[in-house]
Design a protein that fits this description.
Length: 159
Amino acid sequence: MHRLVDLDALGLDPERARLVTEILALQGKVHDEALSIAGPTPNPSDLTMQQMRVLGFVAKEPGLAGHELGARLGVSAPTASGLVDRLVEKGLLIRVDDRDDRRVRRLHLTDEGRALTREMDSLVQRAMMKVIQNMTVADLEIILHSSEVFLEAMERAKS
């Protein structure tokens, strides 16, 4: 089975590695089923692929500087600036002056930009809305609890 993560490199004990392998396999199946139910991710018709990449990088790294964005995209500073200009005009990004260096402007998603990135990345949520009537309250409680546990683990991983 092809994996995006090398579990051996993580140094997991055998039981944890077995469970993670099973979870990843199930997540792959959930993704495939969600795609068959909900279809491909909606692509806003007024955004280019490069603009969507910009939103993705800023969502991942809020406060990214324009020159850092250019490096991530593999484009010149003027090209990156033009992409940002168009997203600012659309109300999806804002530039904020850096506190320590007034020459640097930091990029952040607006509320509208954040909502759009969530919408573009909502495959499982879109599928869930179509199958929710087939789930019991107990099923939904399990998913709620699992989501809370996963979110708490993600918070711990950031610190």
